[in-house]
User: What shape does this take?
Amino acid sequence: MAAAAAAAAVGGPQPPQAEMPAPGLALDKAATAAHLKAALSRPDNRAGAEELQALLERVLSAERPLAAAADGEEAAASGGGGGPGAAEEEALEWCKCLLAGGGGYDEFCAAVRAYDPAALCGLVWTANFVAYRCRTCGISPCMSLCAECFHQGDHTGHDFNMFRSQAGGACDCGDSNVMRESGFCKRHQIKSSSNIPCVPKDLLMMSEFVLPRFIFCLIQYLREGYNEPAADVPSEKDLNKVLQLLEPQISFLEDLTKMGGAMRSVLTQVLTNQQSYKDLTSGLGENAYARKSHEKYLIALKSSGLTYPEDKLVYGIQEPPAGTSTLAVQGFAGATGTLGQLDSSDEEDQDGSQGLGKRKRVKLSSNTKDQSIMDVLKHKSFLEELLFWTIKYEFPQKMVTFLLNMLPDQEYKVAFTKTFVQHYAFIMKTLKKSHESDTMSNRIVHISVQLFSNEELARQVTEECQLLDIMVTVLLYMMESCLIKSELQDEENSLHVVVNCGEALLKNNTYWPLVSDFINILSHQSVAKRFLEDHGLLVTWMNFVSFFQGMNLNKRELNEHVEFESQTYYAAFAAELEACAQPMWGLLSHCKVRETQEYTRNVVRYCLEALQDWFDAINFVDEPAPNQVTFHLPLHRYYAMFLSKAVKCQELDLDSVLPDQEMLMKLMIHPLQIQASLAEIHSNMWVRNGLQIKGQAMTYVQSHFCNSMIDPDIYLLQVCASRLDPDYFISSVFERFKVVDLLTMASQHQNTVLDAEHERSMLEGALTFLVILLSLRLHLGMSDDEILRAEMVAQLCMNDRTHSSLLDLIPENPNPKSGIIPGSYSFESVLSAVADFKAPVFEPGGSMQQGMYTPKAEVWDHEFDPVMVILRTVYRRDVQSAMDRYTAFLKQSGKFPGNPWPPYKKRTPLHPSYKGLMRLLHCKTLHIVLFTLLYKILMDHQNLSEHVLCMVLYLIELGLENSAEEESDEEASVGGPERCHDSWFPGSNLVSNMRHFINYVRVRVPETAPEVKRDSPASTSSDSLGSLQNSGTAQVFSLVAERRKKFQEIINRSSSEANQVVRPKTSNKWSAPGSAPQLTTAILEIKESILSLLIKLHHKLSGKQNSYYPPWLDDIEILIQPDIPKYSHGDGITAVERILLKAALQSRMNKRIIEEICRKVTPPVPPKKITAAEKKTLDKEERRQKARERQQKLLAEFASRQKSFMETAMDVDSPESDIPMEITTAEPQVSEAVYDCVICGQSGPSSEDRPTGLVVLLQASSVLGQCRDNIEPKKLPITEEEQIYPWDTCAAVHDVRLSLLQRYFKDSSCLLAVSIGWEGGVYVQTCGHTLHIDCHKSYMESLRNDQVLQGFSVDKGEFTCPLCRQFANSVLPCYPGSNVENNLWQRPSNKSIQDLIKEVEELQGRPGAFPSETNLSKEMESVMKDIKNTTQKKYRDYSKTPGSPDNDFLFMYSVARTNLELELIHRGGNLCSGGASTAGKRSCLNQLFHVLALHMRLYSIDSEYNPWRKLTQLLEEVNSQLGNEEQQPEVPILYHDVTSLLLIQILMMPQPLRKDHFTCIVKVLFTLLYTQGLVALSVKCNEEDRSAWKHTGALKKNTCDAEKSYEVLLSFVIRELSKGKLYHEEGTQECATISPIAWSPESTEKYLQDFCLPFLRITSLLQHHLFGEDLPSCQEEEEFSVLCSCLGLLPTFYQTEHPFISASCLDWPVPAFDIISQWCFEINSFTERHAEQGKALLIQESRWKLPHLLQLPENYNTIFQYYHRKTCSVCTKVPKDPAVCLVCGTFVCLKGLCCKQQSYCECVLHSQNCGAGTGIFLLINASVIIIIRGHRFCLWGSVYLDAHGEEDRDLRRGKPLYICKERYKVLEQQWISHTFDHINKRWGPHYNGL
Assistant: This one.
C-alpha cells in the first residue's frame, strides 16, 4: 500500500494546478515547504492555503496505492515509484518537511519539545512491561508508575510492589486525581505550566494545515483495507496485512504525540474538529474516490449492525431528550421481568447447540430493547471514526498506543472518553465475535482503565453520556445471548432462565473487560451514588443478577457414574464472583454511614422483588426438589450482605427491611440445601457425579470465594433462624440433612432417605452446621479487626504459613477497590500479635525452607477456635492437622497429656438485632434431639461417633452460656395449656429442661427390634408422669409433622388470599417407595434427665463407676469465680465436668439435683441383650479394629527398620556425612581386601576374572580454573562500566603458559612439563559402595528395560547406586590385592638414596607389559574410555600433532592432579585440619591411581628424555644438544611443574609402589622445587639485593653444610644465572615497582616455604591415599614443617628448638653446585635468544585462592533493573528470558533462538564453555537459579528472599528482595563440592533447548 507523490507523479489523475514539474519534487521539498510557510504567514493567506491543499491532495492521496495493496503483493511491487513502500516514505517525507516548514525535521521536533509543560508522565506501555504500584501513594487502586518515575520518587517504607503488566497501562506520575502528590517523581513535581513560554504561532502553523489531511488519508486507508470477513473465513490475515502496511503512518502519529504538550493540543484540535471532518469525509464532493470511500464506510457501519442516522445535512449535535434513556431501560426491564414470549432463536442455535445437547438457548424478546444504546452510532469527528476503525480492526496495538499517548491532553481526554462510551456497545459486539478475545480484552482494558479510574472524568461521563445505563444494558445484552431454561425445582413449568456456563462467553471469561470497567466506575462514590439512587437501573441490575441465580445446577447421579465430568463449574464460580459479587462489594463500600440508609433500602427492596419473581418463576412452594443443588444464589447473597451492612454500619432497624415469615421460610430453603449438600458430598453420596462436585464444594468455601458465598449464606440462615419459629427451623435442619429417622430412642430404625453407611457423617454434618450457625459471629457483631484476627488464627492453627500464603488465605474483600488493602497496617499488627516468625532454615538435605509464621502459645491457649477452622477448611485433613498441632501444644506445655477435644471458645457478644438466634438453643425440639442423642450414645447405639458427642456437648454448653439471665425456679409450673402441647419438656429453657426427668417414651420401631419383645411395664398408669407420657407419643418423629403444622399456621396468618393458592405439595411425592418393614409402637422405660445422662456419660468416658464428684462440695470458691483454667483444655470428661459446673451455676435447683444424682450410687448399666445380627456386626467391627491395629504395628515396625537402615547405610543428602567405607574393612594381617556387592549381597575379594568396582560419578569440572589470585570475590556487574575479564583466572594463566612453552620447545617435552584439566578436568567421586561388575551390567540391563520415566539416561551409562540412590555413571574397578599396601612395602629400608635412585630408574625403564586379557583389564580399559569421554575433546587435546600418545599421557596424569587439587580445595586449601577429613572419607583415588598407572605404563618414556635422569645425574654432552639448532630444544628442567613431575614419576612405576621409592622420588623433586624457589626469589629482588646476596653467600660457601644453607645456594644461583641474560633486560624503573620489600632472612624463609607448600600438600595427600597414612593436624604456621616430617624429608636428627629452616630438608642426590649449574645453563642458553619469555616462563609462587561464585548485590532490584532491559549481544533485542552466569557474569538468553548455534541454545552452550557442562544461571525475570549439569537441568531455588523470608518465583508478588547469604553459601558449596547431582532431586532433560 502506498500514498504518495511519486505514484501520483507517475500517472495518477493529477489535479490541474500542479505547480511543480514532477522531477523537481524530491529535490526541493524544503524549498517548497519554506515558500508555502511564508505564503501562509501573510495576513491574506488564501492563495497559500489553496496551494497547500492542492499539494497535499496530490501527496496524500490514498487512491491508487491501496488498490495495489488490495490486489496483492505483485501489484504492489509493480506500482509506480518503486513500489508502495517508496511512495509511502515519500509521502511521510513530504509531511515531515511541510511540518517543519522548510527547516530540518529534527530541529523542529526539538523546538516543539521545548514548549512541553511536562506535568504528567503519561508513558504508555504494553503487556509484559515492568511497572510499579505504590498503595501508600495511590488514590485509585489501579495507579501505576513506570520504573523511571518510581525510582525518581521517594517510596521508602511504602507498601509497593513491582508487577508485570498484563494488559498494558500508562504512568500516572503527575496526575493528582489518581495518586498523592507526595509520590510524584522529581520531574513531575513542578507544576511547570507557569514557566513555559507560550508557543509562537508560526511554529505549529503548518501542522494545523497538514495534519487533518494526513489523518483523513489514514482513515481512507482504513476504510479501503477493511473487508467484511466472509462468514466462514476469519479475515485476521487481511486485517493484519493492512495494519502492517500502515505501520509507518501510525508510528509517525505516535512520534508526534511524544513531542509534548504543544503538539498534542494541535492534534486534539484536529481530531475533535467537527467542521474539517465534515468537509473532508462527507463524500459529497466531486471526487469520485472520496465518494467511494464514504460508501465503504457506510457499508462497514451497516454490516456492524449499526444504523447511521439518516440526516446527512443536519450536523447538529443530537442530544437525546433528558430521561429517554432511563425510561427505555425501565421499559426493557419490565419486559425482561415478565420475560416476554420465550422464543428460541434459530440463527444462534446452529453454533451453540452441538455442545449443549438438548438444552435450547433462550432469547429474550428484544422488541423493547433500548435501541439507541445498542444500535445507533454517528461519527462527527476524526477521533470518533478513528476509534470506530480501531475497534473494527480489533484494537491494533499501535493504534491503542497512539490514542493513549494523547491522554495527557485534558481536552482530548474528555473528548476521547465520551467517544469511547459512545462506542461501548459496539466494542462489546466486536469482542463477542472476535477470535482473539483474550488479546482484545487486554487492549480494551488497557484503554478503559486509563479513562474510568479518574473519578472526576467518570462522574462527568456518567452525567452527560449515561455511562451507567450503557454499561448495564450492554452487560445485560451480552449475557442474553447465552441463556437457557432453568431446570431447578419444577423442570417442566419453570419460567426462569439462567446463563449456560458451557458457553464460550462464560468459559473464556469474555465478559471480563466489561465487568472490570463496571467495577472500576462503581468504586467512585459519586458514580455509585447515582447507581444506588436510580430505581430503574437497580431493577435492571437485579434482573441481570437473576440470570446467575441457580446456574450450573447439579443433579445427583443415583445409578451409574456420570460419563463425562463437565468442568463448567469453573466458569460458574468465576462469573458469580466477577459479575455479581465484585460489583456488590463495590456498592457496599459506599454504604458505610447512616446517611446512606436510603440506598440500602432501595437495593433490599428490589432484591426481594427479584427473589419473589424467582420463586414464582421456578414454581417454588415449600419443599426443595430432592437430589439437586446449585451453589449459585447471588440474589440471596446481595440481600444478605446489604442487610448485614445496614445493621452494622447504618444503624437500620433490621425488622424494617425483613419480609414476612413466609418469605423468610422460602429464603432459608436454598442456602440450607447447600449446607446439607456439602455434608452429602463429604459423605461420598455424590461420588457418581465425579470429582468435579467435590471441586465445587471446595471452591464454595475457598478463601477467594468464601466471603461472597458461604459467609452470606450462613448469615442469611442466621437471620432467618432469629426470626422464624425455632422448632420449625430445627426440624427443617434435621429434615434437610435426612437424619430425622435416626433420632429415635430405639436401637434400630428405618431410614427411608439415607443409606446406613451415610447416617453417621450426615448426623455429624447436621450438628456441626448447627454449631457453626449458633457460634459464628462474622456478621453478627464482630468488628473488622476481630474478624481479621479470627481468620488469621484459624489459618495459622491449620499449618504454619508464609506471609504471602496468609495474605492469600485471609478472605479479603474481593472487590479490589473496596479500600481494604491486603497487607494493610492492621494486617501486620494483627499478625505480629498472634504469630511468631520462624526464620528460613536449611535442612541437611539442602531442601530450603521459607520464612514461616507460627501461632504464639497464648493463641493456642485462648484463641484456637475449632468452629472457625471447620468453616474455613477446604480439605478435611486440615481440621485434623489443626487438632494435631493443638494436641502437640498441650503436651509440650504440659497442660494436657491425652487426646484433647476441640476447646470451647467464648464468643463475642451478639448484636441486639440478632438476639432471636439464641432461641434455637432454647426450643424443645433441640432439647429432645440432644436428650435422644445423649441417650443413644450412652446405650452404644450404632452410627454414633465421638464427633457427634462432642457437638452435642458443644450445643448444650452454648445453651448454658446463652440462657436467659435470671431463671426462676418456679418457671416450670407456669406456661398455660398451649405450652404443654408437647409432653417431653415442660418449658423451653435449657437450664430448667436439663433437670427434667423423662420416664417413658413411646417409639415406633421395626418389628424385628429388640424393644418389641419386652412387655411394657405394668406400673405405667400409676406413675405420676406416666399418663402424660402415654398420651405423648409426640416423639421426635413428629419433627416433620411439627414443621408442616407451623408452616401452615404461618401461611394462614400471613395472607388469606394465599389460601386460594393450591399448596398440596408435600414431601410424599419424593419419599422412597421402599417396601419398608412394618413399624410397630413400643414403649421404652428411660427414667433419665439430661443431667443424669451427663453424669453417667462421665462414668462411661472415664471407665470408672461413680467417677463424678461435684467439685463445689470441696471448694465452694468454684461457684464464685467459675472461669477455671483447669477446665479450658481437655477431653470429653473435662467437657462434661465443665457443663455440669455451668449448669449448677445457673440454677440452685440444678446444683441440688446433681448432688442428688451423685449420691445415689449409680447401678451399673445393665448388659444389653445383643441380637445375633448385632453381634455379627460388632464382631466384624472388632475384627476390623484388630486388623487395623496389626497393620499399624507392622507399618511402625517397618518404618523403624527402614529408619535404622537409612541411618546405617548412608546419608546421601549431605556430602559431609561420614560414611563408613566398605573398602577399609581389611584387617591388618589379611592381605586381601574384602568388598561387599550391594546388588547380590555377597562379600569377597576383587579378582582378575570377577572384579569388584566402586560406584563412581565422573564429571567434567572447571571449578579449579575459576580460582583467582585475589581474596575478594568478583562482583556481578550491574552497570555498563563493570565488566569481568577472565584473564586472571587459574585456567587462563595455565593456558597461556602452555602455549608459550609450545612456541619455543619440543612439543612432546612441553606436554610433560605442565598439567592440564584446570578447565574440563575429570573429577571422580564415589558414594563408597561397591558391586561386582557383572552384577552392575545386569542391573543396567534391567534399568534399560524399565520403562519408568527416570531422571537420568541409561544409554549414557547413568544409574543410581542400588543402595543409596546416589547418582552415578561408571564403575571403577578395584585392583586385586591388598587395599592398603602390604606392610612389607612400608618398612623403611636402609638403602642409601643413591641405590634407591638407581632402582627407581630401572623400574621405570621396564616396559609395562600389557596385562593379559582378563575381565579386570577390560574393565580398566572401559573405565579409562569413560573418563576420556567425560570431558570434551578440546579439554584433552593440547598436542600440536593430533592423536599423539603424549596427549593421552598428559591427560591421564592430569586426571590424578585434578582430583588431588579438588580434594585440597574441599579441605579448605590447606591440610591444617589433618585427619582423613570429609572429602577423604569416600575418596577413590587409590583405585583411580591403579587404573591410570596401568595405562600410563603402556607409554614408556624414552630413557633419553626421562626427566628423572636430568634430576639425578650430571650429563656431560650438554653442548652437543645445543648444536643442532633447527630442532626445538627440550623444556629446561627449571621450567617444569614439579607436581606434574611427581605424578609422572609415580605413575610410571609398577604398582603397588614401595614406600621408600616414593620417599626417594619426593626427596629428589624437592631439590628441584627448592631451586625453582631460589630462582624465582632472585628474579624478584633488585640488583642491589642480588649483589648483596651473592656476596654473603659466597663467604659461607665452604662451610660444612653449605648445601643446606639457602644463602649459599641463593648466591650460587644468582652467580650462575648472571652469566645469561635473565637479569639483564629490565630497565631501572621496573625494579622500583617490583620490590618495595626489604628482604630479611625471615621474609626470605617465609617466601621459600610458601613457594614449596602447594607441592608438599599434594604430595602428602597422595601419600595418604597410596599408603593409608593419616594426615597430622597442625597450626597454619607450622604446616610446612609438619608436612616435611610426614613425608620423610626432615633429617631424623633434626632438633626443633631452632627456628625452622626450610633448606635443612634438602637431600641432594649429586653435589648441589654441579647440578644447579647444569640446570641454570639450560635457562641461560634459552635467554640468550628470548630474554623476556625466559623470565615469564619461570615458575612463580602459587597465588591461587579458593574459587568463589560472583558476589551478588544486597538488593535484587539492582540486578533486575540493569539486566531485564539489557539487550542480547547477538540480535540486540531485549531477550524474553534473560539470565546471567553466576560463575563468570556472562549475560545469556535462556531459550533464545537468536543465539542458537548448531541446535544448542545459549545457556547450554555457555555451560559447556564456562563450566565444562555445569552452569549456574540466575534467571533475571524469575529471581530463580537454574543449574545445568550435562544433559539435565534443575531449578535450584532462589537466593533472594523478601522481608518475610520467602522466595518470589517469577516475581509475581514484586516485593523487594534481599540476598540470603546462607542460601548463597550453600549454592557455592554445592558447586565446589560437585554435589548438585546428589542434593537436588528434580532433574529433567533440557534437550539443549535452554
Remarks:
- The chain has a mean pLDDT of 79.
